[in-house]
Every structure is written in structure tokens, then in C-alpha cells.
Structures
1.
Amino acid sequence: MGFCNLSELDRAASDALSEIAAESGVDVKECYQCGKCAAGCPVAASADVDCRGVIRLLQIGDVDRVLTLQMPWLCLGCGVCLARCPQSIDLPALNTAICRYEMKRGIAAEREGEAFMNIFLDNVEAKGVSDETMLAMRYNLQTGHLFQDVANSPRMLSRGLLSGNGYKPAGGPDVKRIVHDIRAGEGGTK
Amino acid sequence: MRYANFPGCSASTTGKAYTESFSFVARRAGIDIDEVPDWNCCGASAGRLQSDDLGDALPARSLANAEAAFGDEPVLALCAGCYSNLRRALVHARESEDRRRQIEALIGQPYEAKADVVCGIDPFLEPETAHAVKARVTQPLNGLKVACYYGCALVRPRALTDFDDEENPQSMETVVKLAGADPVEWGRKTECCGASHHVSNPAAMKPLVERILADAIDAGAEAIATACPLCNMNLDMREAEINKARAARGEAPLDIPVYFFTQLLASAMGASDAEAGIARNFVPAGALLAEAKTREVVVELTPEEKKAARIAAAKKQAAARKAAQAAAAAAPAEAKEAAHE
């Protein structure tokens, strides 16, 4: 990892850490690095820094590094970490808070994750339900992963798994208003 | 038992076979279904990533609609992702009066969080329903070895889902036994399959799917049973591409069909492949069930049953010996009498 000045890190990071702590309800000082989280994490092997490491970096104040990591975006929210943590640290919530912190500042470390979220919510805002086909098409185009799952589409189509029954809620406009207002940051609390 | 069904966006798409097989079983097992009126998308992983407000509001609107129409009738969500999100809104509203009011304000409707939210396995844990299913099983699966795969969202986080054990649940096992299947014990019952990344990061997701398939086979399973459309599609649809990659690495393919647990119930209750949605499976799944139904049932006794059987056999032998002795004692006496005459 090289040399780092803990006092400087601490000073620079305190605002970011406070925001992430408030958002997630997690106090990283409670972690004593036992590693049960990373041991059970299904994506730990694919992660640049595993979840135990992410908390360690936050503990020493290296927020800048955390904000470049893939790990918070890799987190599936499966909850094994929280289920096993002897201190009941809500790691899924912490990872979510880190992702939200990045998105608010336009510095998402994984553009695919942010793109997926936005396209999904655009669909729900417009229709009240999710449309897999539109989602896949728009996502592939927007991210440039043009051929993702192209081989699977005909297999899904022939099994009747792509086209739904065309259901849309009559209260679509209500759903639109709810989603739009919250995304625009109006009237919400968190 | 009566439930207000929340279909969710997957019910008529990736979850079609789940919906079809569940309906088949429900009609024959006394499960009555109302439909949540004017429901909307629960938000999947996107809503709760955007904000806590959106993560609560999207599911809460549907719950409020269900409450307005059906009061405290439990809301049933077959999709584990929907179940998780609906439970999130429910528990947040129940835990804090302030939050409940905030949620009402966000959705612009009253919501008192009266009704419980249950998952697809729950109805079959009611003794009456389990009994009704068992009574209608005419083609049991004769000990078909099944690995019950719960995925992560049904059992975690415990604070929200309040359903079964987070590490080693047993509820689906008791349900598939109703169909005559024999559940195996294995270690990846609740390990996430990665489906929430199936669009944004499929590369990270595939090793998770492969480990689940491989472990189920190692544990002796002939089939995997699921209770979530996303998990099911992930394991079933992606088995082929995983095997392609394995072939390229010189490894043997993983060959195991993946069923919704309700497909196993429906089939055992006499459903045709069409009625049980088997034609929608990616890995061919009809032949295994047909074959299982023709097997001879091998009854394995528990140690207690074996001991009781030994004692009963010993008693029977002792009684037979005594009867023989009595007969032998009586016979010479008769012979003597006969000899005297």
C-alpha cells in the first residue's frame, strides 16, 4: 500500500466519512477486522478490495481510495456479511451509501451499475412496471455492451419468458409522480 | 387460506412457470388468491439503491392498495426480490410511526401496515394446506434427490424477512417432501446466485452460479428446487453457457435440471408438463420427473425404527420358541397316553 499520513487522511476525509456514516447508520470504528464478512462474501474473489478491506480503508480515513473501488458496486446485498458479523455492522447499507455518495457527485466507480439503475427507474417511471426487453436494449446501447445476452434472447422468447401480459397499472401517473419527485429530490426525507 | 397476490414484473415473464405451477397447486389445495389491485413494480435492486425513500415508496404503494381492498389479508409475493422489498416497506412502516407517516406522504395514500407479507413457501407451511397437498399427490416423486435452493433474499436480512434460518433453512425441504422428493443437505442453500447483477455485471455473476450447480451435484442432488424467478432463470438458463466455458477448459459439464418447487408439487399432483410449466425450463426437465415416478420406493428406517423392529422380531422369535416348547411338551404327554392305551 505504501506510505500514508494518517493525520492528513483523517482531516481530509472527515466530512465524507460523516456523510457515509449518517447515510448508512454504520460506525466503522465498531469493526475489529475479524474477516467473517469477506470469508462469506460471494463476490470477494472478484473484488479489487474485499469488504473487510473497504471498512479498514474507511477506518484509516482513505476515502479517496474507497471511492475508486469496484467493491461497493459488486456488492449484491445478499446479507451474509451482516448475518455473520459479530458486531452486526450493516455492510450492504455501507456499500449502498458509498455508491450513492459517488452518484451524487457524478463519480460512480462503475458506470454499468449507475446506468442500470437509471434505465430501470426510467422504465418504472414511465410505465409503472419494469420492461425487461426495453431495459436490456437501452442498457446494451447506452453502455456499449451491444451483444450482452444476445444469445439468450431467442431462447427466452421461444419459452414465452420475454413478452409479458402487457399489464400496466391504471395508476401509472401516480407511480410516475412518486418516482419523479423522489429522484428529483423533492419532498423526500432520505 | 386466502392471500392477496402481488405478481410483480416477473410473474408473466421469467416467473411464468412459477405462476402456472403455483396456480395449479393452489386450486387443488384450498389456497384462495385475490389479486392486489393496480400494483406497481417493487423497485427491484434499483429503487433501494437510489434512496431509502424510493426503496420504501414503490413497494408501499402496492401494499397500500392491497390494504384498501383486502384489509389485513396477507400479501403473497412469489418473487423473492419482490418479497424482500415488500417486507422492507412493511417492517420500516411497522417499526416507526414517524417513518410510516413519511411513507404515507411519499405515496399519497393511507397505509397502516396491517397485513403481513409472505413468500411462496409460506402457504405450504400451514398444516391444512400441507395436508391437502399430500392428499392430492397421486404420482409421488419416489425419493428424487432434490437440493433446495433458497437464494439470499428469502432468508436475509433476518430483521426484514423473518422467514426461516439465515444459514440453514428447512422449510422448502419439508414442502418438497410432500411431493415424495428426498431433499439433500448441502452447503450453498442460501448463497446468492448474483441475479441482481445479471445485466450490470454478468461476468462477476457466473462463478456464483457455477459453484451452486456444482455443489448441488456433489451433494448427490439430481435436481435443484428454487423459489424465486430470478434465481431460477439464473441457474436454469445459464447452465448451458457455463458448460460451454467448462468444455473450453476441459471440464465435464454440470448436468442438473432446475425446477420451481411448485413444479415438483404440481407434477406429483398429476399436472401435465404443460400445466406444470415444464416446457419453459431451459435444461430439459420432463424426463427426470417421469422416470422418478416409475421408481420403486425404498423405505429407509431411522435408527429408532430399526431398533423397534429388532425388538419386535426378537419378541416374535421368543414367542414362537415358547409355543414350540409348549407343543413339544404336550406331544410326548399325548404319545405316552397313547402308548399306555
2.
Amino acid sequence: MSIATLQTALARQGYVADDRLAMALHLAQSLGRPLLLEGPAGVGKTEVARAMAGAMETELIRLQCYEGLDASHAIYEWNYQRQLLAIRAAEARGGLDEAALFSEAYLMRRPLLEAISREKPPVLLIDEIDRADEEFEAYLLEILSDFQITIPEIGPIRARSRPLAILTANGTRDLSDALRRRCLYTFIDYPDRETELAILRARMPDIEARLARQIVGVVQALRREELEKTPGVAEMLDWAAALAGLGVNDLARAREEVQATLVCLLKTAADATAAPPEVMDRLIGKVA
Amino acid sequence: MRATRFPARAEGIADRMAGFIAHLRMNGLSLGPRETIDALAALAAVEATDAAQARMALAALLAGDAEEWRRFDQLFDAYWFNDGRARTRNAPAPRPRAQAARPKLWQPHFEQRQDDGAGAEPDEADGGAGDAQGAEGRLVATRAQNLLRRDLRELMDEESLARAEAAALALARAIRDRLSRRRRAAARGQALDMRRIMRKSLARGGEPLELHRRARPPRPMRIVALLDVSGSMSVHARVFLAFLRGLVGAADADAYLFHTRLMRVTDALRDHDTLRAASRLSLMAEGFGGGTDISGCLERFMQGHGARALGRRTLVMIVSDGYCTSPPERLGAAMAQLRRKARRVVWLNPLGGWREHAPAARAMAAARPHLDAALPANTLEALAALEDEFSRL
């Protein structure tokens, strides 16, 4: 897929990708390298993978990382209960085939093994990789470079196809240089006004043009205020949905609704007090 | 930024790409020959004749983190369009705000630093391994007793720096070797775990054959150190940088420098290669010695790094004289927020034991209610004495 077709394919999935992101995705596909996405919370890092899976008409396999994530949750695990049952059954029959106990039938595939054993290359989303431990990162590195997993009882399992791996990170801790070197890198920042407008239109096609412009304007202005949690694109979409649900079509004439729906944008008590009605009036006055 | 000239006779794209990778490497990106090959492969996958596409492709491939991602465009222009040299020489600065904040007085110093290149930078972190210090060092040693009580501003020699680092080591150790209040089951421990002994004895018909033990597991505190390197603090900066380096080296510590901006220097301080560490630090130290925006930097710290750096086992150490351009109320609010997110907040003030402390008093008064301790840190002795203070926190 060329970059332009990739962008239109993503747009069809309701995802507006800028040139740089599209280029990175294109390269990730053509070079077969994983793509590391960084950026503030709520700019659509995870959403990229979903849209990409839709655009490629393939499956999305997701691995959510957390502290203490280990190989048995990420790669594979033996199904002990079934093995025990099989042993019991074999004892009753007499004659136990030990090799059969460690066959694929008793193997529980976790996301990483799943991702490399598909015929059609899936999209593998490794979400918030920085939450996982460094040991897991090292393990992941091996899989992402060789696309091969070794199970001691069975032997190496080669990838049938190379998944498109997308990693996201939020800056919970520093990632190792080795992982960064393996990956393509893209930093996704908050979108500019035009892009954000396009995102809103893609997600809510029947929103009024004026309201859309006002919503985006207010959210962009809010991001420049000093808040504890800057509202992301997801918050903006929530807010737009809330306003549309209340039947608002002009922010300037819906002061109460705006105040009532601010919970979609401002998620801490301090932020809520930082944006009192007067401030909102000022922001809306600017964009209306 | 360092500029690279095109080799006069570059042979084809591969040669130029190798040059580009070398140029990036010189500017601090960690790239190798493998990346050259990958870069050529990446160009083959896009319309390489389109500069915009080539730029985006190479950025995705070669940038490794957010900082490199931001700098990439400049580096790209500097090499492929040959305009790096022009840029560094006359004005349009890469970061206008930092440039503006830098006072006139400071500029000549930086000009000179840029000229003698990254390698020959004076070592901010540990004073380097200067070779011409032999005689002077002995002289200092004879007066050591005397020096110990003098103000930190006068201490710039190698020995004092080493001593500051040692003080930090002791401090870090005091905090690191901290035990939990509660006992947990452990293989080796002082106390007997009666409950488990009873439970296990059931299997032996009530005879306590297996003895289980309990011990207090270590609960090390993390240190987050924020060092003010603004103009008013620049006289102390070297000593405290050495102090920071000691902390980072010994414990699970996180170090930041701030003036009008905030930057994380943990990795740079941890670098074993002192020359590289120095050049990394000096890259970050743009605007060293400018004004201070303590509250703004604290806010930015909590927004950006706070989620990772702060926690219930974190001790936040702010090293600053309290001279601040923003109003004290804002500092108070920021400190209150910091206090909620961290276990302990300590303010080390180099002016603490000093008479003319008054101008910064308003900021300190605003911060004071939210501090667990405000300690003077104006002499090496005071720094070393912190160990006792900290073990009490």
C-alpha cells in the first residue's frame, strides 16, 4: 500500500492519520519492523492499531502490558488441568503416552504465539509496553527480531506470517535503547485544529459544521490552559457526543449544557475549579 | 548543533547515507552501520526523490525517542541542505525561549563552549580527571579542616566535589537500606512465624518440626532530586551536580535540573563515560544560569514525569535558593500538589545558613507548610549531616 492509499484506507475506518504516521505505518509494513508509538494520553495511539487492522482487513491481536506480565501470560502456557485429566484417563486405560502430553493440543496460545501462527498476518498491538518489566522487554525483543518462539518441549515454532507489530508507550519508564533501535518510531502529538476537525467529522459525520468548529476550538484552547490532565482526542469526542446528545447546536447559547458536560473533558477536581463558567465563557466567546 | 559538510566527492547515495548516519551519530543519536542499511531499504520503499517523503521515512526509522524526533528535522536540513553551519552562526535559534531567557552575561561562556566542541567540555558532573591539579590539590588538603566550614560557593576543587559525592552516597545508602515495619515470611529471618509453624505442625501430628521465620523486607525509598541551576544558583551548581551524581549512582534516584525549563538528567548522570556524560549534560544545560520559574517547573514535572517518578515511597528533594519569578501563591499550590503525591518533600537551601536570606523568604514561606523539612545545605558539613536528618524522615 502506498502512503496515500493507506491514508484513505485508514480514513475509511474513521481514523485520520497525518503524513508522518502514515509513512511510519507504510514502512513498518514494507520493512517488516515493529512500530513504537509515543505521545500523551488520549491522542489515539491504541486506535491506530484498530484502524490498521480494519484497513488491512485482518485480525487485531492485543496484548495489554502490566507490571508483572510474564511469558505464561504473553506467549504460551501448558494447560495443566487438561494434562492432569489426560494422565488420569490414561492411568485408567493403562499406558501413558508421555509425548502426547506435550503436544499442541495441550498448548494454550497467548497473544504473542497467536500472532505468529496465523496464515494471514494480523496486527499485533502491544499496548503500554512501558508498564511491563524490563525482563519482558528483553524477551519481546527476541520475538520481534526473529519472529520465532522456542518451546522447550516442542522446539522452535517459526512464524507462518509476520504480524504488523505496533507498540505504544506512555512514558511510565524509559524503554531500553535496544528496543528503540529495533522499532520504527513515531511521536503522536495533540492534533492541530484542522486535523482535529477532520477527526471529529470522521467520527460524527452528522455533526453541524459550526458546532464542530466550536467544540474543536474550545478543546484546543483548553489544552493551552494549565490543567493537570490535558484533554485528549478521546475526551473531545466524548464531549461532542454528549453535546450532540443534548441537542446543543451552538455553544454560545447553551451555557448550562456546557457546564454540565464538562465532566467529559476535565477529569480532576483541580481542573474543574481551574475552568469556572467565566473561563469557559471566555473560551467559547473566542471561537464562536 | 554540529554541522557536517558534504564530502566533496561522495560516491552515490550509499556513501551519502553513511555520511548522514555519521552526522546523526555525532549529534548524539545512537546509530550504527545496520541503520545505514535499513535507511537505504527504507528509501527504496518510498519515493526517495521526494524530499518530504524521504524525510518522514528516515525520521520514523532513525529517531529513537521524543527528543530525537523533535530534533530530527533540523539535523536532516543541516546535512542534506547544508544549512546547519549558517544556522548555528547567526541568530534563528533552535529554542528561542531558552535563548531569550539567557542573560547577556552568560553568553560569551556558551559561545566558547560551542567552539571547543562536545568532547572538550569542562565536566559539570564530576569535575573530570583534570591533570593539572596535583600541586593545588595538596594545598587544598592542608586547609581541609578550614574549608569544611566555608560556604559551598567557594568550593570548586576536585576534592570537595568528591566529598559532596561521598556525602550523597552516604545519604542514598541511609535511605536505601530502609526496612518495612511489618514482617513477612522469609527463608531466613530473626523472628519465628508462629502462625505458620502451628499450621504446618498439623501435618506432623502437632509436633512443630519445621520452623518458619519472618523478617522485615527492605522497603527502599526512591529519591527524586530537583536541582535549581538558575543564575542565582550557578555558584553552587557544580557541587550540587556532584551531589546529584552521587545520589543517582548509589540509589534508585531520579535527577532533574530546572531553571525556566525542566529536564531529566538521570541517564546523563548515570553515564559511566564521563566525557559523554559531560557533553550530554552541557547539551541539556542550555539556559543554565538564567532566571528561575520554580512553580512552573514543578507543575511541568508533575504533569510530565510525575506519574512515573512519584509514589508513596518517594522522597522529593528540591535544591534551590527559593528565588523565583512567579508569585509565591503559585509555588504554594504546586508544593501542596507535590506533597499529596510524594511521601516526603525536603527542601535543601544553600542560603539556609546565610544571613541575607530575606529576599527569597516569601517563596520559602509559601512552600514551608508543605515541607517535611527545610534544611540548610550551605557547607559540606551540612550536606554530610543530612544523613541523620534523612534517617529520621
